[in-house]
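Render this sequence as a predicted structure.
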Amino acid sequence: MKIVRLALNLFFCGCFFIASLCNAHSIEERYDLPLPLSFFIIGSGLVVLLSFLFLFISYPSIIHPHSQPKIILRLATHQPFLSLVVGVAKALSILLFFTVLGACFWGNPDPLENLAPNFIWITWWLGLSLLISFLGNFWPIINPWSNLFHIFQWIFNKRFPSLPTTLNLPLPTFFKMAIGTGFLLTWSWLELIYPVAFVPARIGQLIGIWTLINLVGMCLFGVATWQTRCDVFSIYFYWLGKFGCFFYNSVSNTLERRYLSQGLYSLDANQINSIGLAPFILAMLSTVLFDGLHSNSAWLIFEQYLMNIFPQWLNASFNFSGTFGLISTWLIFWAFYRISCYIPQKYCSSADLTYLPDYLAPSLIPIAVGYLIAHNFSSFVIQIQNFIFLISDPFHLGWDLFRTKSFRPNIAIIDAGFTWYLAFFAILIGHVLALRCSHLIFIRITHQRKDVLILSIAHTILMVLLTMMSLIIIAEPMTIS
């Protein structure tokens, strides 16, 4: 079985790098590139490599590359108004939560005409991810589950003032962020593989299950512990928000502005090392790339290979190949990432690198943002328009609340050429920013130039390969080289 597993891993990894096998992803319209596809792929790899050389050559001048974040709003001076805004946002989040939940059970049974599937997978999951990536993490304000729990706490304290609403049980340290990572893989499985993920009634059941899990988790372990180690959406939006321009400084009670990605290399090492962050962030990357692999011809070859080895399992479960591929993609990413961290751990002697994989993991967030834009932005811009007419009649009662029921989306708003160049630059810039973040993290670990080079080499090679692989996956279905 070891030989079989090794062969499967090598085959699936090889699918990433074989351009001729990658077809059919992203959009139906094809685009004739002005240059051969290989020029874009090789050129992007060279840009990432040259970026590393520039960073290393300019080593002394980039230790402190940015000024301190700038205060743009002192919240204490506008407290009454801001409290009103936050209160309204929380109330709207709960109202929208129950509206979507109601649409699941009482709305139009056609998924294309029901508010819930569009809102969950497009408006909320994609739209909020993109918005938070650039503006910062405002999810704690509009988190409906957290807001529901606070309402529950208030009612419970009024009724039973002597009883605690949370038990604050300790979460075993060996779990670290394993529960959150498991939830993220499960969520991606529901989105990409589960055959009825867009059925409104089934979505409503999933919302109910997650609401119960969330409320019970906060009661057992406390809000802070649950949301930092188990609540997949709070963790996901928190780390995307670290890439963004704005953040709340709880010490000075101010809203501050910073450069994109600046929040990723100024993090406390002890905090990162204690939570086991790397598996979660690698799941963020691998699940998006799996989405691309899952919809091209290389996947059909992989399924045929699995059929020859596990025919009974594939016949018994329609979802077996997708589940196997999703987990395998994540494990392959994890293996390559650990190798890129193991080499420096072995040869760098000037610093303690025991927790290097977790400490370095935030530097991968720019790649996750680049993947979000490259794989989802065009689809988001087209499909978000459906929300305009769906929100007017969420319960299929013939309403026209916002006079938008007759609106229909303009699917020609983005063409294939724009999609390609947006994806190309998003992936390229994401990897360059990730390389810069990792270099600044290495400088925080050790100021010895030789050891910074040792730490950087394997990681740079990984960045180059990831850049080229990402472009291969995103390019083939939409381009003719």
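Summary. DSSP finds 20 helices and five strands in the chain. The chain has two domains: 1-66+273-481, 75-181+196-258.
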